[in-house]
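Subject — a protein and its fold
Encoding — discrete vocabulary of local shapes:
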Amino acid sequence: MVKMTSIATRKIPVVFIGGRDSAPRVRGGLRRVGASKIRAVQLVRLQDAPRHEFVDVPDQVARHEASRAKALAAPVMALHSGFHPPPATAADHAASGVVTYDLLSGTEGARDNHGLQLVETSGGCSRPAHRHNFEQVRVMLEGSYGYGPGLVQNAGSVGYFCEGITSAQTITGRSLMLLLQVGGPSGAGLMSRRQSRDGIAALGERGRFEDGQFTWYDAQGIKQQKDCYEAVWEQVHGRPIHYARPQYSAPVLMDPERFAWVPMPASSGVWLRTLGRFNDRGLAITQLKMAPGAELLLPRGDQILLLCCTQGGGRVEGRPYERLTALHIEAGEAPRVRATRESIFFGFELPLFD
């Protein structure tokens, strides 16, 4: 059974595997009915993901609103073995140099709201030191990412940026990043793309966004400035932003190749890397590797699990996956994965709130 859900301006196929058409819906999935097994798995291939030719940085959005319609109307890149995003045109570079693909998103207003994106940068971009009231995990698939003086995240590495931590942003040349943004332990949640755009539009009527700052003139004609993210957040929520004290004193940078592949019990040809579990809500980062022909019934967990395939291909409960396919698996569900080619996934167990 395939249902459709609308994210941004495109329709994303949401695959509910098994179950009954009449099964009542609950948040993010399907409710169990009697003794029948009902699995809720959202599977999104890259070519189905909404495409945006900018990053959600307000000054970029405001400056390049004219290119937005073109970006959203353009066909999404084709996916194939050995995927490489198509080169951006000169006009794209002039517009922003950044293309994002929304792979998965959570529930607006929820404390565990989240977004999993693929971010391609051509020509570079930068932003001065700033902080967020949510968490980020950055997986560098290609290229490098500077996040402070002398601090660089290179291809293959994973960076965890906790809620409230201060970092800069410098990307030169071409890069490809898998980016998870998720509500942090304070419970402040994560603004949805819709909320962000509405806030930007409202603020644009009384000021301008430029170089990471929102600038306006108050009733006395005095010039005022505020960090653009803070300005949008406060416009959306109607109150001053609050930053929780960071639970970590600096970003945590990980090299997965320094972690061992540990065989999974009773699953021939399947290995797991555990890169870390962070904050008091239990955000976890893992890698899963499967040999060709291997099968795995994913263990049932208490947390929502996001998976993104970075290599290989196969099937999830009979539905095909390939490189840069993303999966959203509700807590308590255990879909079966079969690899037809050697496959590697990044896994993210989302924070658990009461």
Q: What stands out?
A: Residues 193-204 form the longest helix (12 residues). The chain is about 10% helix and 45% strand. The helical segments are 58-63, 65-73, 90-95, 193-204, 228-237. The first strand starts at residue 2 and ends at 7.
